[in-house]
Amino acid sequence: MPVITLEDDTSIKTFNPPSRFDPLVATDAELEEYGFPARPDHPRLLRLYQRVFTRLKGRLNCIEPAFRISRDGSHDPRDRLPAAGVFSGNNWSGGVVRLPPGKSFNQVLGQWVVPNAYPKSGEFFLNSYWIGLDGFTGPGASEALQAGVDCFLFGTSRSLYPWHQWAPSAKVAISNLAVSAGDLVAISISASPGAGATTATVHFANISSGVATSYVISAPPSYQLAGSSAEWVVEADPNHLADYGQLFFDNCIACAGNSGAGGGTGRKLDIYRGSTPISESTLITSQVIQCRYSA
Fold it and tell me: Which domain holds residue 213?
């Protein structure tokens, strides 16, 4: 397994599966060897796992990822509005689920169609669409394990790319996996055993193109996962949120051992500019969250 070291001394362990690798029939040992998510025991999670890889069957193109530190902007834990309720803030819109004390999430999954965002002026805009663990409240409020797709716009130029971040470490972009508006992407983050984990496996699949990759990242020095919350989020500074129309996070599931929680069973998050909501969310079903630009 190759190890890539970036300029800030961040090390990432990558994988290079053989051509025509089929995770639907691979053994548990082969899945681990090539960095794929473990086959879930929970029936609902297993159906999701099979559905994703069935859609990729015969055209799955696993690549060894290349990375770069992204300077476009960090995706840190949630900013909270001092005068607002605990589930309001000024940079996250979407859904969050939490666990009672003593329990922890060890995996989060989700998929969505990447929106075709556009700016209303010539300024720069940065929209981020991601899933993650921690960064909300409680024991994990100071660190956040996230992976998603960023859309950076400036004038008529735009850049879309997948990324991950275990804040407060730097955001890292995948530089050789193309993403376009309209693509269906699926992401999973696994950090066993949950609370106390210092490594995590990220699996990213562009279902539209068939290109996928997996790799293992490490927690920031002196940090570890709390696993106290799971999120499905549209993130932006309220002054730099481009009109993205709407986005539906689907198959929103967070795992705590052999049990699971749907993202739509928690609480919704909205982005405000002052007292006005500019990105609002709706919990459609237990596994579907709608985010809608409303400025």
Answer: 3-293
Cβ atoms 245, 116 nearer than 8 A: yes
Number of folded domains that form the chain: 1
Identify whether 168 is preceded by a cis peptide bond (ω within 30 of 0): yes
**Range from 92-96, 151-155, 176-180, 266-270 carrying the lowest mean pLDDT:** 151-155
Query: Please, what is the Cα angle at 27 between 23 and 28, to 5 degrees?
Result: 95
Which token pair is 59? 């055209």
Contacts of 182 (CB under 8 A, 6+ apart): 113, 114, 116, 208
Please answer whether residues 37 and 31 qualify as being in contact, where contact means their C-beta atoms are separated by less than 8 angstroms.
Answer: yes
Contacts of 274 by beta carbon, 8 Å cutoff, 6+ apart? none
CATH at residue 38: 2.60.120.700
89 bridge partner residues: 80, 271
Q: How many helices (H) and strands (E) does the chain have?
A: 2, 20
- 268 contact partners, CB below 8 Å, separation of at least 6: 87, 94, 95, 281, 282, 283, 289
Q: What is the C-alpha separation between 281 and 259, in angstroms, rounded? A: 25
d(CA 181, CA 160): 8
DSSP 47: H
The pLDDT tens digits of the residues spanning 182-216 come to 999 999 999 999 999 999 999 999 999 999 999 99
Is the pTM of the predicted complex or chain greater than 0.85? yes
- For residues 73 and 236, give the distance between their C-alpha atoms in angstroms, rounded to a whole number: 10
- Pinpoint the alpha helices (H) of 37-155: 43-55
Residue 134 CB neighbour total at 10 angstroms: 29
CB 17 within 8 A of CB 34: yes
Q: Classify residue 263 by its DSSP letter.
A: G
